[in-house]
Design goal:
The protein has 122 residues and is mostly helical. The protein has four helices and no strands. It is rod-shaped, with a radius of gyration of 39 Å.
Length: 122
């Protein structure tokens, strides 16, 4: 209700209500028209406030839809990366299994530089 006071229509409604209050004391014939004007202006201020809220709600809805679409696209991208990582892991696991199950006769000397690279040593 306080937001209605700070709009031009809200201020006009307050002025009309004050005029109706003064008319009760000084001009009895003007009470009804001034009171009706105050009610009409307050209603107009309330409708303007509702319209502003509606515009804000629609904007927020559109922003939420855009954010949801971006989140869905991000989720799909994460799934794609995860699937690629799983495929690489399966491929690496297969190579590792072949290495571990290879017979001893397949072993041979390895150059020290290559051994350090394979073992990850500096």
């Amino acid at each position: 209700m306080l937001a209605l006071v700070w709009t031009p229509l809200g201020l006009a409604a307050l002025a009309a209500a004050a005029a109706a209050g003064l008319a009760v004391v000084y001009l009895r014939r003007a009470v009804l028209p001034l009171a009706l004007a105050a009610v009409a202006l307050a209603g107009a201020a309330y409708l303007a406030h509702l319209q502003a809220d509606l515009v804000t709600a629609r904007r927020e809805r559109d922003e939420a839809r855009i954010a949801a679409a971006e989140a869905a696209a991000g989720a799909k991208a994460v799934e794609a990366v995860s699937e690629k990582a799983a495929a690489r892991s399966r491929a690496s696991r297969g190579v590792r299994d072949r290495i571990l199950t290879a017979p001893r006769s397949d072993d041979a000397p390895v150059a020290p530089v290559l051994r350090r690279v394979l073992e990850g040593a500096p």
